[in-house]
Amino acid sequence: GIDSSECENVSKEKETSEESEANAMDSLIDMPFATIDIQDECAVTDVPHINLERSKENERISKAQIKKRKKKQKDHQPNYFLSIPITNKEITRGIKVLQNAILQQDKQLAKAMISDGSFHITLLVMQLLNEEEVNIGIGALLELKPFIEEILQGRQLILPFQGIDTFGNQVGFVKLAEGDHIQPLLDIAEAAKRTFQEKGILAGEHRSFKPHLTFMKLSKAPWLRKKGVKKIDPELYENFISHRFGEEMVQRIDLCSMLKKKQSNGYYHCESSIVIGDKNGGEPDDAELVRLSKRLVENAVLKAVQQYLEETQNKSKPGDGSSVKTQEADRNGNDSDNNRK
To answer: Where is the A-kinase anchor protein 7-like phosphoesterase domain (predicted)?
Structure first.
């Protein structure tokens, strides 16, 4: 004899339990061990022989490995990149239309959208840890220019954009159309990687270079997962699958920071730039040379001041040899004065 209210409570508890299990499995799918047969890894044996000491040791080793892996990932985390900015208004307007069409279907995706001032193609990512390395990066960018001019042989590099695709339904991007422009762009990316690595800069990725124009990222709004948005639904952009967004004539390559405050127009903080296809050919821009020289002089002055301050502090420390000599000289001087008196 169970009344209807109790039946309803039992039903709700069952639904909640099933929902929790579904959420747990969704989380496991995103884990790096998703391809492992969980049943094989976690199977219970008929006769359990648990060695507590060995279990603790394995747990300690596992924690140490995780900590080491996280440190390695942090040590190799890129914070700068080479950018080809998208300046064609036709392309940016087309992407805004695409974004608005998606938001009309799901307004909560607004925070996942890339702002129109930030549209670009990433040519190379790298890690620059201090101002000295940033200066080296600027120098590498200037050295890259003649290699680019050699690849292009006086031709303009024009990039046509058409269609939509995603990386794992997590990053939405406008595709670069197929054509003769692909190979020169790949050659420029390879030349950039080689030039920066030869300077001792940690640059490049393990995966192959795939040029793309990002317009949205779910990682920009991680709270969306809690609301059930775990993937970009292809139906959101199905009307733009073959849409032509326009062509970008590559005129500039920038060395940009991922972490520094963006400019007022929404574009990334830019340390230096080279102009592509200008009249000066392979010669670096005068303005960039002046800018780099100024930075080098400023850094040299700062280093000299720091060195002077360190030496001054060392001399003033108790027990320092120079301090003892000064005290001895003062004492000798006083003894001489007393003898004269």
So the answer is: 78-275
pLDDT band for 11, please (50, 70, 90 cuts).
low
**Sign of the CA dihedral 114, 117, 122, 124?**
negative
Give pLDDT, residue 142. 96
Q: What is the pLDDT of residue 116?
A: 86
Q: In angstroms, rounded to a whole number, what is the distance separating the alpha carbons of residues 32 and 26?
A: 13
The predicted structure's pLDDT at residue 27: 40
Please tell me the distance from the alpha carbon of residue 314 to that of residue 128, in angstroms, as a whole number.
Answer: 31
Mean pLDDT of 188-205: 93
Strand partners, 174: 164, 213
- Beta-carbon-side half-sphere exposure of residue 230 (alpha carbons within 13 Å): 9
Residue pointed to by tokens 């001489």: 336
Query: How would you label 197-222 residue by residue, b for 16+ Cβ within 10 Å and e otherwise?
Result: eeeebbbbeeeebebbbbbbbbeebe
Digit-coded pLDDT (tens) for 314-339: 766 555 544 444 454 455 555 545 44
Instruction: Determine how β-strand 212-217 pairs with β-strand 120-127.
Output: unpaired
Contact 205, 216 (CB under 8 A): no
CA distance linking residue 95 with residue 87, whole number of Å: 12
Q: What CATH class is the domain 75-278?
A: alpha beta
Residue 283, both tokens: 């010669």
DSSP-assigned beta bridge partners for residue 165: 173
DSSP H or E run through 254: strand 252-257
Nearest Cα neighbor of 165 from 155, 156, 176 is 176
Domain ranges of the chain: 75-278
pTM flag (> 0.85): no
Closest CA to 213 of 104, 98, 108: 98
108, 224 contact by CB (below 8 A): yes
CB-CB contact of 196 with 150 (8 Å): no
Other beta carbons within 10 angstroms of residue 292's beta carbon come to 18
295 pLDDT band, cuts 50/70/90, is low
Residue whose token pair is 């042989």: 153
Question: 244: which strand partners?
Answer: 162
